[in-house]
Amino acid sequence: MLIIGIKGNKMNKEIILEFLSFHKEELKQKFKIEKIGVFGSILKKDTPNDIDFYVEFKEKNFDNVVGLLEYLENNLHYKIDIFYPHKLTNKKVLEHIKKEVIYG
User: Fold this and answer.
1) Checking phi first, is residue 42 left (phi over 0); if not, alpha (psi -120 to 50) or beta?
2) Rounded to two decimals, what is the model's pTM?
3) In 10 A of CB 85, how many CB atoms?
4) Which of 25, 29, 56, 99 could cross-link 34 (Cys pair, CB 3.0–4.6 Å)?
């Protein structure tokens, strides 16, 4: 298992994308994910306050969402925000995220 990130150390999109690539199959199987990517401040600067993930689930349920959140926070040692289509009721916000997101 690749464990990276220690709060306060440099974190950037390359590190996150490497993490997602390395863990892709595990994330898909464990949390029933179709696609996962990053957007927001992690794309613009190093060491953001939090990391925003956009996720499309094959099976979106409480266990998969919370399990993924805990998995990412425990492995990346950062505050994580997860956004997914069912959570985003504002279509303009969803369109903006989909244009910006980089998938791992």
Assistant:
1) alpha
2) 0.86
3) 14
4) 56
User: Is 70 inside any structural domain?
Assistant: yes
Identify each DSSP E strand in the chain by its residue range.
Answer: 33-39, 50-57, 79-83, 102-103
Answer whether 1's CB lies under 8 Å from 72's CB. Answer: no
Residue 82 falls inside a structural domain: yes
Domain encompassing residue 64: 29-103
Whether 78 contacts 51, CB under 8 Å? yes
Residue with tokens 């279509």: 91
CATH number of the domain enclosing 85: 3.30.460.10
pLDDT in tens, 42-68: 988 766 789 999 999 999 999 999 999
Give the Cα separation of 47 and 77 in Å (integer).
Answer: 12
Q: Which residue, 42, 26, 46, is CA-closest to 102? A: 42
Question: What's the token pair of residue 85?
Answer: 């289509």
Report which residue type is found at 85: P
